[in-house]
Each structure stands twice: as structure tokens, then as C-alpha cells.
Amino acid sequence: MIDVLVSGAAGRMGREVVAAVTAADAMRVVAAVDTGYAGDEAPDCHGGSILCSGDLATAISATSPDVMVDFTHPDAVEANLRTALASGIDCVVGTTGLSESLLGEIAAEAPENTCLFFAPNFAIGAVLMMRLAAEAARFMPHAEIIELHHDRKADAPSGTALRTASLIAEARSEVPSTPGAETEIAAGARGALVDDVAVHSVRLPGLVAHQEVLLGGQGQTLSIRHDSVDRTSFMPGVVLAVRSVGALSGLVIGLENLMEP
Ligand code: NAP
After folding, report:
1. Is 126 touching ligand 1 by the criterion CB < 6 Å?
2. In testing the pocket of ligand 1, which one of 6, 13, 228 has its CB within 8 Å of the most ligand atoms?
């Protein structure tokens, strides 16, 4: 039995994590932490039998979890990770907004044999979209990313877009001379440059998490698109990561590291 602490348990993602871990075999939620809902019942958890704690350290010492799953906020996640790792707890992190270098620093300072697993996107389809985009960029180096999310998302561009841009940059042998050379009549019209890839962020109510990679070549374009229409799309990946982290150590980035070929 893997004992799981869910950090951000009352949030949009955290609620789904609580429900998914509760429903999965050989794992259970032993603690729910959410600063905004301390003292409230953790939603979807054993019929509300677990109360949300407002303090991570207290919840850790009360329940001794094996794994912390964190879906909180870019401003909160670093402190949460440092607290959990220092207690020897493996971490599965979906919260975006931390750079890979900071994640590496946090993992390097953690006790040996602990694992910091971060996935910018836990949906299998999104992992495949990123992989296909990198493969396509080898042959079609002109690529731009449009990422679309709900209007409550705290960071932009999304972690998925940052990761996709980095994979495209690694894969292509040539960097096209544009974007960046044009005169922008309105600032930002050509998006943000990430690893020399233009990224355009859309935020609208009604969206969940979507991304399209557009590649252009002579007389043709290729579009690779993924849509998460429901947050349950992320849960098989989260459950897989919870099952896997015990056998891993150090910083591991990306669900692709856990997927069968
Ligand atoms: P959300 O609905 O705002 O939920 C976050 C919850 O965490 C809120 O209840 C918040 O409380 C709480 N919180 C804030 N600081 C905390 C702390 N120090 N300790 C414990 N709880 C804390 O956000 P969301 O939509 O679930 O997204 C959470 C994160 O996951 C974001 O970074 C998002 O980009 C990311 N995400 C990742 C994936 C992926 O596949 N990797 C997929 C979707 C989303 P308050 O409301 O009081 O602040």
C-alpha cells in the first residue's frame, strides 16, 4: 500500500488526484493539504473522512506518507517540495512554473534515494503530441506553438509549451531566421520566444488544457493538436507516477520516462 499526501487537495487538479488515488489499487490518500481549505473535508475522499490540513509539515509528521502529489501554485511548490523531500518523501509534481534548473537544484539538495518526479503534462496524449512535434521538427524546422488554457491558470506560457519548445529546439538542426525579425505593430503579436520557438498563450473560460503545434514547409503546413477536455485525462499518468517513484531517485522529468515503448 502506497500512502499518499495530496497537496492542493481542494483545487481543480487536487480533487481529481484525491478521487483517482482513492479509486486506484494498492494506494490510498492518508493526508490532504490545502491552505485555502484547512479544516474542510477533502472532496471525493473516502466519503469526506479526511480533513484538509493547512500545514504540510504537520500533515507529514501526523501521517508519514510515502509520496506527496503536488498540484498547488507556482509560488508555493518550491517550499512544499523542500519540506517533503527533507522528510524523505518522494514527490510527484504537476505544478508548473518552476524552471528545470531550479527543480535540479531542489533534487540535488534532497536526501539520497528520494525522487522528484515532474511532468509538465500528465496526459498520455500530450506526451505523444510533444514527441510527434519533436519528430516533425527534424524535417520541418519552422514551428510555432499555440497553447490554450482556462482563464484561472497562474502562469504563461504553460509548462507543456515550454517543454515542447525545448524538445523542438533539441530536435531541429536549423533555426529559422524568423520569428523576431518583424515589426510588431502591437507588442506581443508574434508571441513569446522560447528556445527560438514562438509561443502564443490563449486564456479563456471554457477551455481546460489544449495545445497545437503548427509546422510550415514549402506549400504545406502540419498541425499536431492535443486537447484535454476533462481533468480526468491527467489521472492515469498521476497514478502511474505514484506507483513508479519509489523505484526512482533524483530528478526525473516527463511521463515518457515511465511509459512502455
Ligand atoms: P487550483 O484550482 O488553483 O488549485 C490549487 C490549490 O492549491 C488551491 O486550492 C490553492 O488554495 C491550494 N494551495 C495554494 N498554495 C498552497 C500550499 N502552499 N499548500 C497547499 N495548498 C495550496 O489550481 P489547478 O488548476 O488545480 O492547478 C494547479 C497546478 O497544476 C497549476 O500550476 C497548473 O498549471 C498545474 N497543472 C498541471 C498539469 C499537469 O499535467 N502537469 C495539469 C493541469 C494543471 P488557494 O485557492 O487558497 O490558493
Report:
1. no
2. 13
Would you name the residues annotated as active-site residues? 149, 153
Tell me the H-state helices in the chain.
Answer: 12-23, 56-63, 77-86, 100-108, 124-139, 159-171, 235-244
How many domains does the structure of the chain reveal? 2
Cis peptide before 120 (omega within 30 of 0): no
Pocket of ligand 1 contains residue 157 by CB under 6 Å: no
- Segment 95-140, tens digit of pLDDT: 999 999 999 999 999 999 999 999 999 999 999 999 999 999 999 9
The answer to whether the CB of 117 falls within 8 A of the CB of 95 is no
Q: What is the pLDDT of residues 16-51, one digit of tens each?
A: 999 999 999 999 999 999 998 877 777 665 555 677
Q: pLDDT tens, 138-196?
A: 999 999 999 999 999 999 999 999 999 999 999 998 888 766 677 888 999 999 999 99
- Number of the ligand 1 atom closest to the C-alpha atom of 56: 19
Q: Are residues 197 and 147 in the same domain?
A: yes
238 CA: nearest ligand 1 atom: 40
**Residue whose C-alpha cell reads 471525493 in the numeric block:** 44
Q: Which CATH number do you get for residue 69? A: 3.40.50.720
Give the CATH number of the domain where residue 217 resides.
3.30.360.10
Ligand 1, atom nearest to 126 Cα: 40
Domain membership of residue 167 as a residue range: 124-228
Predicted structure pTM score: 0.92
